[in-house]
Amino acid sequence: MHKTKVSRAQRTYLVRTSLLLPLGHPFLEPNRSLSLVVKLDHVEKSYQLGKTTVNALRGVSLSLREREFVVVMGPSGSGKTTLLNIIGTLDRVSSGRVLLEGNDIGKMRDGELTKLRRHKIGFIFQFHNLIPVLTALENVQLPLLTSGVNTKQAEERAKILLGRVGLSGRLNHLPDELSGGEQQRVAIARALANRPRILLADEPTGDLDTKTGTEVVELMYEMAKRENATVMIVTHDPVVAKRAERIFEMRDGILTETSTSEVSFHRIRAVEQLPPEPEKTLSQPN
Fold it and tell me: What pTM, to 2 d.p., does this model score?
């Protein structure tokens, strides 16, 4: 099979501009060693509520490798969001270790964690959290500008990402001029702007209908693979889990990997029904 040769100059140009290439192109082939991105080692997280101790995470150990698409399911109060916050450096462990690319984040200061989140971690939320006074283009540019990328390069990168999520014709629209699915597409583009090593998503389809939710999940999968990002999603939605390469279930702070999920989906949904979709979603500022 003929392989396309890519010169050093071409590689540099492609990295700088992130041009859209077909999946399978030799420049986009993954590292077959699948390097370890995140490792949790016997993580415990407890909260004190008055005289009551809440054990949100109980001895959680987990390894996430490059370009994996992982889903964590479980009812409300099981510890899913706490796990996401721990990996996203938004909260600290009570005991145990969390390593991001081999670096112990428990030993980092707040300023170091801020830089780590800015450059290594992307976040996607259920309600998009787009800044309502900024256009789609400006929302995606913002994390690039705050990371020190110049305006021209930030605009170029943002346009490329919005084009990849199918919004080239909506660059100058404000969030309230976009549908819920379009807002979530902008949120995906924004989360990937700084080429994070890991993408964390909290109920990304919870505010969308089934068809739109399926489209968003497929888009997240394709975009993350193209950007070589690891993805971890916490959700109630079995539509999301169908795309997962690995599925975990969280119950009472204990994380368990499962190979068979159909029974769990029904059981989880029986524990808590999602609220009805609101008539109109309002953007929330970061």
Answer: 0.76
